[in-house]
Design brief:
Layout (H helix, E strand, L loop, with lengths): L1 H7 L34 E5 L13 E4 L1 E8 L17 E7 L8 E10 L2 E10 L2 E10 L5 E8 L2 E6 L2 E6 L7 E6 L13 E7 L1
Antiparallel strand pairs: 1-12, 2-11, 3-8, 3-12, 4-5, 4-11, 5-6, 6-7, 8-9, 9-10
Length: about 200
């Protein structure tokens, strides 16, 4: 099974984009809870200008009921796409493939984008090749944000600070079974400049 999956994931960072035709979202609401205490150690993933994938991405197998991490964005998360419609593409943050399958078949991860003068986080899942996404919240640039994805039967539970949102899960494995998914820019367009995302597993 792993040999088959390895062949599937040689280009595992190549991910489908999400476009939206909705109007520009409202300005950010920064009144919600924000974690400001920095974790002890972290990794800065850099998506170089002109690239989709981040450095530090590797094939890392997982078998877990939940993943917990802290993330911090800096000013490099502010960007403007060449094609205005691509501003609504969802970039990929962190998560995992599931069900012992390739991530465009089964997976759960956080997504993010800069639009409407706000940094927005999303729940982003695949079930049997069908993609679903949902905006979770806006977050400020600078502070540490606490995130988690847990597997609870036929649901993925996404947590951002104190916000909780469930998404459907049709995987049949009792735990998330697959490989890690790392920061990725796009969508259609490559990163317009170096994008830095700091993450610490908890």
């Amino acid at each position: 099974m792993k040999n088959i999956l390895l062949a599937c994931v040689l280009a595992f960072a190549c991910t489908a984009c999400s476009k939206g035709n909705d109007p520009l979202p409202a300005p950010p609401d920064e009144s919600g809870p924000v974690t400001t205490v920095a974790p002890a150690t972290s990794t800065v993933y850099t998506i170089k200008k002109g690239e989709h994938s981040s450095d530090g991405a590797m094939l890392n197998w997982i078998d877990t009921a939940a993943m917990h991490f802290s993330v911090r964005f800096d000013s490099s998360a502010v960007y403007t796409t060449q094609d205005k419609q691509n501003q609504y593409d969802i970039n990929k943050l962190y998560g995992f493939a599931d069900n012992g399958a390739q991530h465009h078949q089964y997976s759960a991860r956080f997504g993010w984008r800069w639009s409407g003068a706000a940094l927005r986080l999303f729940a982003y899942v695949y079930n049997a090749g069908v993609r679903q996404e949902a905006e979770l919240t806006t977050v400020p640039i600078g502070p540490w944000i606490q995130c988690a994805i847990s597997v609870q039967g036929n649901e993925y539970v996404f947590v951002v600070n104190d916000l909780v949102r469930t998404m459907p899960r049709t995987s049949t494995t009792p735990k998330a079974a697959g490989y890690m998914l790392y920061p990725y820019f796009g969508g259609d367009e490559v990163a317009p400049h170096d994008v830095r995302i700091e993450i610490r597993n908890r």
